[in-house]
Amino acid sequence: EATVENINDAAWRVKSEYTLPEGWESEVYSWLSDNRSGSVENRDDQGGYPAEDDLRAAFDALGYVQIDE
Questions:
Q1: Rounded to 5 degrees, what angle do the CA atoms 29, 35, 37 make?
Q2: How many CA atoms lie within 13 Å of 30's alpha carbon, on the beta-carbon side?
Q3: Which end of the chain is more exposed for a tag (fewer CB within 10 A), N or C?
Q4: What angle (nearest 5°) sits at the alpha carbon of residue 30, between those of residues 24 and 34?
Q5: Torsion 2-30-42-14 (CA) sign
């Protein structure tokens, strides 16, 4: 649960680059858990905190549309 909240915080910059569906945090957590499990490992009982590169990989793999600027 803490990791899902951390995903939202960690994606503060990246999420403005994509059109994200409702509940995207859980989808991203599932994808990261299956494909980049190290990025969602619990650290200091505070949950995992994925890097921007991991988040972008998840967003792209899940087919989230990138916003053109």
A1: 65
A2: 7
A3: C
A4: 145
A5: negative
Over the stretch 4-53, which tens digit does the pLDDT of each residue have?
A: 888 999 998 899 999 999 999 999 999 999 999 988 888 777 888 899 99
The answer to whether the CB of 39 falls within 8 A of the CB of 50 is: yes
Q: Which two tokens stand for residue 51?
A: 């890097």
Query: Please, which contacts does 62-68 make with residues 24 or more away whose CB atoms are closer than 8 Å?
Result: 62/24, 62/27, 62/28, 62/31, 64/18, 64/19, 64/20, 64/21, 64/24, 65/18, 65/19, 66/17, 66/18, 66/19, 67/16, 67/17, 67/18, 67/19
| Predicted TM-score (pTM) of this structure | 0.88
For the stretch 38-50, pLDDT in tens is 888 887 778 888 9
